[in-house]
C-alpha cells in the first residue's frame, strides 16, 4: 500500500524507516554513485531529511520499503533552490502552490517494475490535487526520464546540465485530473483505491505520538 | 464572473495597515459564508501577531489558559505543512473535548480547515477558517476552496510581513528570467508569445510568472507587472 508519512512519525515504523534509508543508499550511492552521505547504519540521509519532510512511500506486503519520494514546500528551503539554480535560469522556484519532490527511489528488486514507480507518481498526483497545489518541481537524471515517459507523466524540463548518463535536469510536473487518470491506468490502481490510502494516512499523521 | 478569491484580492490590494487587514479578514466571512477566519504568525525572532474574527473575551481567555499548548489545530500545524481539515485531528481526551466545547459555546465552528505557512528562515504562521455548517456543505466548500485558502493564507502572511516591515528583501529579488517574463507581459504579449520569445515552454513560463508574483507579494499577474514597474524592476 501507499503511505503518506512525515519524518517525525517514521520512527514508529522502524522496519519501513530502516529499509527506506538503506534502499536510498543502494540506489543513490551504490548504483548511481551520487555524492551522497551514508551513515554507520547504512542510511542515506541529508539535511533535508531533518526538515520534517513528507514522504510518500510504497510499502511492500512484508512491511518493507518498495519505493518512495520526499516532499517539501518551496516557500521554505529546498534542494532545487539551494543547489540547482543554475538549471533554472537562476530563478528561485518558490510558490505556495509548488512543492519540491526529491529522492525518488525504488527498492533494488523493484527497480525495473514500472508498477511501483507508477503507483508512487499516482500518489504524488493525488496529494497535489488534494492539497490544491499546481505543480511539483524536482531534479532527476536520464534514467528517471525514461521511467517518467513509461508512466506517461513526463515533466516539463526547465533546464539540464551534463551529457549522457551524467545528465541531470530540473523539471515540473503539473497536477491535474487528466494526469491522475493516465497514471492510475498505467499503475493498475483505481482512483478510489489511491483516495482511500490518502484518507487513511493523513489523519494518522496529524494525531500526536502516543 | 468574479470568483470569491478575486473579491478577496481586490480588497487586499488596497490594504496598507493592520486595521485594513483586520477588516479584510472579517470580509472573508461574507465572501466564503463562514463563521470565522484567523491568521496568526510567529516571526523568526518570536514576535507574534494575529488577525481574527473572534471576540476579545475568547482571545483573552485562550491566551490566559495557554490553550495553544493543547489546541490540536496549532499542534497539527506546527508539526506539518499540508493544509488540513479539523476532522483529521485527534480530538480525544477530556482536555481537548472541554476545549472544543468551550470554543463552540462562544460560536467557533466545529467545522474547520487550516493552512500552515512556513518561511525560509523558520517563520511560522497559521491561517484557519471555520463554520457551524453541515458536514456535506463543509465538504463541498473545502473541496472547491482548498487552493483559495492556501493562497489567502500566504497573501495575508506576505501582507502582514510587509506592513510589519519584517519581510526579507533578499530572496525577493527577481532573476533576469522573471524580469524578462514580466516585461514581455507588460508589452502586451500573450503567454504563448512570451514563452516562445524566451525559448521556454509555456509551463515553465507560467511557473516563472508565479514565482515572480510570489516574490513581489503580488496577487495576480497584472498586479505583479504593476509592482515590478513601480519598484523599477522592469521598465515601463
Count the helices of chain A. How many?
A: 7
Total number of domains of chain B: 2
Radius of gyration of chain B: 20 Å
- The ordered string of helix (H) and strand (E) elements of chain A is EHHEEHEHEHEEHH
Largest interface: A-B, 37 and 41 residues
Strand coverage percent of chain A = 15-25%
Structural category of chain B is alpha+beta
Low-pLDDT ranges of chain B: none
CATH superfamily of the largest domain in chain B: Transcription factor LuxR-like, autoinducer-binding domain
CATH topology of the largest domain in chain B: Beta-Lactamase
CATH class of chain A: Alpha Beta
Q: Report the helical percentage of chain B.
A: 40-55%
Please state the average pLDDT score of chain A: 91
How far is the first residue's CA from the last residue's CA of chain A? 23 Å
Low-confidence parts of chain A:
none
Describe this structure in words.
The complex is a heterodimer of chains A (210) and B (236). Chain A is globular, with a radius of gyration of 16 Å. Chain A is an alpha+beta fold and 210 residues long. The two termini of chain A are 23 Å apart. Chain A has one domain: Gcn5-related N-acetyltransferase (GNAT) (Aminopeptidase), CATH 3.40.630. Helices cover 39% and strands 23% of the residues of chain A. The model of chain A has no long low-confidence stretch (mean pLDDT 91). Chain B has 236 residues and is an alpha+beta fold. A five-stranded antiparallel beta sheet of chain B has the order 2-1-5-4-3, sandwiched between helices. Chain B is elongated and about 60 Å long. The two termini of chain B are 30 Å apart. In chain B, 39% of the residues are buried.
Amino acid at each position: 500500500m501507499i503511505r503518506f508519512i512525515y519524518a517525525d512519525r517514521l520512527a514508529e515504523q522502524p522496519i519501513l524507516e530502516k529499509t527506506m534509508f538503506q534502499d536510498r543508499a543502494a540506489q543513490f550511492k551504490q548504483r548511481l554513485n551520487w555524492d551522497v552521505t551514508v551513515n554507520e547504519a547504512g542510511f542515506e540521509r541529508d539535511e533535508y531529511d531533518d526538515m520534517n519532510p513528507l514522504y510518500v512511500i510504497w510499502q511492500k506486503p512484508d512491511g518493507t520499503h518498495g519505493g518512495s519520494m520526499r516532499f517539501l514546500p518551496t516557500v521554505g528551503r529546498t534542494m532545487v533552490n539551494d543547489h540547482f539554480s543554475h538549471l533554472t535560469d537562476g530563478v528561485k522556484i518558490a510558490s505556495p502552490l509548488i512543492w519540491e519532490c526529491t529522492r525518488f527511489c525504488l527498492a533494488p528488486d523493484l527497480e525495473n517494475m514500472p508498477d511501483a514507480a507508477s503507483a508512487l507518481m499516482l500518489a504524488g498526483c493525488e496529494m497535489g490535487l488534494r492539497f490544491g497545489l499546481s505543480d511539483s518541481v524536482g531534479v532527476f537524471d536520464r534514467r528517471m526520464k525514461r521511467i517518467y515517459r513509461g508512466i506517461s507523466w513526463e515533466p516539463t524540463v526547465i533546464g539540464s546540465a551534463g551529457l549522457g548518463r551524467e545528465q541531470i535536469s530540473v523539471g515540473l510536473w503539473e497536477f491535474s485530473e487528466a494526469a491522475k487518470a493516465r497514471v492510475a491506468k498505467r499503475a493498475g490502481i483505481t482512483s478510489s483505491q489511491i483516495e482511500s490510502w490518502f484518507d487513511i494516512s493523513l489523519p494518522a499523521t496529524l494525531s500526536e505520538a502516543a | 464572473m468574479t470568483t470569491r478569491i478575486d473579491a478577496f484580492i481586490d480588497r487586499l490590494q488596497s490594504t496598507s495597515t493592520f486595521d485594513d487587514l483586520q477588516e479584510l479578514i472579517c470580509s472573508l466571512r461574507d465572501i466564503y459564508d463562514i463563521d470565522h477566519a484567523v491568521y496568526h504568525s510567529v516571526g523568526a525572532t518570536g514576535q507574534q501577531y494575529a488577525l481574527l474574527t473572534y471576540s476579545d473575551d475568547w482571545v483573552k481567555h485562550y491566551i490566559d489558559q495557554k490553550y495553544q499548548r493543547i489546541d490540536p489545530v496549532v499542534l497539527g500545524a506546527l508539526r506539518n505543512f499540508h493544509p488540513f481539515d479539523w476532522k483529521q485531528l485527534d480530538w480525544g481526551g477530556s482536555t481537548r473535548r472541554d476545549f472544543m466545547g468551550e470554543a463552540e459555546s462562544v460560536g467557533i465552528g466545529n467545522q474547520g480547515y487550516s493552512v500552515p505557512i512556513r518561511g525560509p528562515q523558520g517563520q511560522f504562521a497559521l491561517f484557519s477558517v471555520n463554520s457551524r455548517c453541515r458536514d456535506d456543505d463543509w465538504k463541498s466548500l473545502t473541496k472547491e476552496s482548498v487552493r483559495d485558502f492556501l493562497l489567502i493564507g500566504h497573501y495575508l502572511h506576505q501582507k502582514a510581513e510587509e506592513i510589519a516591515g519584517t519581510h526579507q528583501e533578499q530572496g525577493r529579488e527577481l532573476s533576469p528570467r522573471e524580469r524578462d517574463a514580466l516585461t514581455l507581459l507588460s508589452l502586451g504579449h500573450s503567454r504563448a508569445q512570451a514563452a516562445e520569445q524566451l525559448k521556454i515552454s509555456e509551463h515553465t513560463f507560467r511557473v516563472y510568472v508565479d514565482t515572480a508574483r510570489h516574490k513581489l507579494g503580488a496577487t495576480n499577474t497584472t498586479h505583479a507587472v504593476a509592482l515590478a514597474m513601480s519598484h523599477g524592476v522592469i521598465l515601463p
